Amino acid sequence: MSQDPEQPLKLSRKIYRMHIALVRRVNDTHIFASQALQVLQDAKTGNLSVSRKDGRDKRYDVPSVKKGKFAKRKPHEVKNIYSRFLDRELYENFIVSAISQLESFMFEALRLILVAYPHKLKINVKGLEIERTVSLDALLGKHNLNDVLAEIIESRIISISYANPKTYLQFIGKLAEIDVEDKAFEDYLEIKATRDLLIHNSGISNAIYCAKSGAKARAEVGQLIPIDQGYFDHCVATIKRISGIVSRDVAKAFPEKTDDIVPRERDALAAEEQKETGQGV
């Protein structure tokens, strides 16, 4: 299975555009969060009409299998909802979403590299189980080797995604020649572990979190993991830093010829980056 000779010339540009798109998306999330928090604060302090003036229950339409369902809340109960989201829950939801976006970016970058350089499918790291043979199911019914390759790559990415985060970072670093020793990746491991707590353990620290986070752990076993605006800002900055490292190192490992980028496109790329980062390429 030979690589498309033109694919490597497009690889770094594709991943760079993915990087800018991710940065824009998490920037959008941060902008929205800032605006939403102000609206919630105004509602909590009574600057918006969100409850009955007589203090009785107000009806709120809510989804249900049967139509016409609603829930009732008193004014103080509605304000408690605002407080929960202002203090913590809004940040929790955005952090979970942002980490998923970063992981999608990294695995799509990995997919593009494997398509361009299929011989890298032979790469492995300690602790990662990979299948080195091709099953009959993967071969039968395929029209060409590219279809077989696509299925093998998809299977490999799925197996990597279920590995320990530290292990799959080492794998991605080795395969894509990315500097995963940068401290931003240590922060990512802690953020990823925090995300797992939010989804699977109601935000309560456990031994798994402490083991994954190492020296970066922010809570002892049994404690509620701290979540606030400062931590949310830290998560956004870390995600942007990591996607930038991936884009930068892929460009170094798989460089394009300068002549292959027309001036108009180069200017467009610079404008995109400047808009999101305040810097040009």
Write down how many β-strands occur, each being a DSSP E stretch of 2 or more residues.
2
What overall geometry do the principal axes of the alpha carbons give? globular
List low-pLDDT spans.
1-9
- Give the helix tally: 9
Q: What's the helical proportion of residues? A: 55-70%
Q: What is the topology?
A:
Layout: H1 7-44, E1 58-61, E2 70-73, H2 75-116, H3 136-139, H4 145-161, H5 165-176, H6 183-200, H7 207-213, H8 229-253, H9 263-277
Antiparallel strand pairs: 1-2
What does this structure look like?
- By secondary structure, the protein is mainly alpha-helical.
- The protein has one domain (7-55, 90-277).
- It is built from nine helices and two strands; from the N terminus they run H-E-E-H-H-H-H-H-H-H-H.
- The chain has a two-stranded antiparallel sheet with strand order 1-2.
- Helix 1 (7-44) packs antiparallel against helix 2 and helix 2 (75-116) crosses helix 4 (145-161).
- The longest helix has 42 residues, at 75-116.
- Mean pLDDT is 84; it is low at 1-9.
Summary keywords:
281 residues; mainly alpha; 2 strands
Concise summary:
By secondary structure, this protein is mostly helical.
